[in-house]
Design goal:
The chain is mainly alpha-helical and about 130 residues long. The protein has a single domain, classed as Glycerol uptake facilitator protein. It is built from five helices and no strands. It has helices spanning about 1-30, 35-60, 65-75, 85-105, 115-125. Helix 1 (about 1-30) packs antiparallel against helix 2 and helix 1 (about 1-30) crosses helix 4.
Length: about 130
Amino acid sequence: MDGKKNQIIAEILGTYFMIFAGCGSVVVNLSTAGTVTFPGICAVWGLVVMVLVYSVGHISGAHFNPAVTVAFATCGRFPWKQVGTLRCVATSSSSSRIGATLHYLICDLTEHDVPTKQHQLQVSASL
């Protein structure tokens, strides 16, 4: 049980750091008028995945995206008995909750900071 627990914790932390760094680079790019640039955002995503594969890949296999885990299992490169709903749900939901909590602690959110449909259209138009 201890090995499975370590795998799930590694997946949760890996998914969290991947999303935090990748999405953080997009937010920094948008808030600084394009300082990071598109190639910079791509480099952040690639580098964070590389660092995570080297740091926790030996523990869990570094399947931070449940779709990748299912794809590997379909191709026979990952055992189906380890795919499990628990692993996919645990990593996705726990990472999202940790990220939301950290966002709440770091940012001073008010009711005016909640994105609306108009905000989403403005952000997608600026990309």
